[in-house]
Amino acid sequence: QVQLVESGGGLVQPGGSLRLSCAASGSVFGISVMGWYRQAPGEQREFVAAITRGGVTNYADSVKGRFTISMDGAKITVYLQMNSLKPEDTAVYYCNADYFYLGQRRSSWGQGTQVTVSP
After folding, report:
1. Scanning 6, 13, 38, 63, which has its CA 20 to 30 A from the CA of 45?
2. Judging by DSSP bridges, how do beta strands 67-72 and 2-7 pair with one another?
3. Separation of alpha carbons 28 and 11, rounded Å
């Protein structure tokens, strides 16, 4: 199994920046993709960004050009650098990992970290 622990959320003013971190542990050798999702109050969880172990990235249109996802392969840690933050970026941000374990494809989620963008 894979366990994920997020950190780095907080309160920031519009236009500001935050960096989220997500550290993976457990059966990390099977991880193929790590990503970030977010869920605002009353909304469904939505995709934000993802990165493969090979470094291929993908972003939601709403964050392209403002957010950057990266991975430290040695530490199995994924980062989300968020710049030019807007109030609509306010949400709980969740880390996700897709991995293979005992021949089966599985997915793990972190506990979430709150990001609030407000004057």
Report:
1. 13
2. unpaired
3. 31
Q: Which two tokens stand for residue 81?
A: 């650098």
- In angstroms, rounded to a whole number, what is the distance separating the alpha carbons of residues 20 and 72? 13
pLDDT of 73 reads 73
Kindly report the number of other CB atoms within 10 A of residue 40's CB atom.
Answer: 14
Q: What is the pLDDT of residue 27?
A: 86
Residue 117: how many CB atoms within 10 A of its CB?
A: 19
Find out whether 80 and 93 touch, Cβ atoms under 8 Å: yes
Block means of pLDDT (10 residues each) for the chain, 119 residues, are 94 98 92 96 97 95 98 87 98 96 93 97
Of the candidates 103, 57, 101, the residue with the CA atom closest to the CA atom of residue 78: 57
